Amino acid sequence: MTLSRHAAERAQQRGIPPLILEWLQQFGEESFDGHGCIRRYFSKKSIRAMEREFGRRPVSKMCEYLRAYAIEATDSGTIVTTGWRWSRTTRR
Predict the structure, then answer these.
(1) At a CB cut-off of 8 Å and minimum separation 6, what does 92 contact?
(2) pLDDT (tens place) for every residue of the chain, 92 residues total
(3) Are 37 and 74 in contact (CB under 8 A)?
(4) Main-chain phi, psi angles of 20, to 5 degrees
(5) What is the CA radius of gyration of the chain?
(6) The predicted structure's pLDDT at residue 90
(7) C-alpha dist (Å) from residue 77 to 24, 36, 38, 58, 72
(8) Is 12 strand, coil or helix?
(9) How far apart are CA 73 and CA 52, in angstroms?
(10) pTM of this prediction?
(11) Which strands form 37-41's sheet, in the order they lie side by side?
């Protein structure tokens, strides 16, 4: 997992731990944002997959971080930015 300088600064400013970014890479659902990048976020399906892998209790302890998202460049796989979802993700 490679972070751009901007993504590292935003993750620190927004309080997103590195573990959550790893979980996003491993379990997060992806959708194309229409600008040449991939949006990764936690969906019900990905949360269930994490519960099968780690157990329900550890995932429920981290529930405050499950609104996080990451934007990843398609050409290099670098995470461009991170943030918090405030509304539902629209899929096209």
Answers:
(1) 31, 34
(2) 789 999 999 999 999 999 999 999 999 999 998 888 999 999 999 999 999 999 999 999 999 999 999 999 988 889 999 999 886 656 55
(3) yes
(4) -65, -40
(5) 13
(6) 60
(7) 13, 11, 9, 28, 6
(8) helix
(9) 29
(10) 0.85
(11) 29-32, 37-41, 68-73, 79-84
Two tokens, residue 54: 């780690």
Locate the DSSP E strands across the chain.
29-32, 37-41, 68-73, 79-84
Are the beta carbons of 30 and 64 closer than 8 angstroms? no
Give the pair of three-digit tokens for residue 2: 């490679």
Two tokens at 18?
A: 């590195």
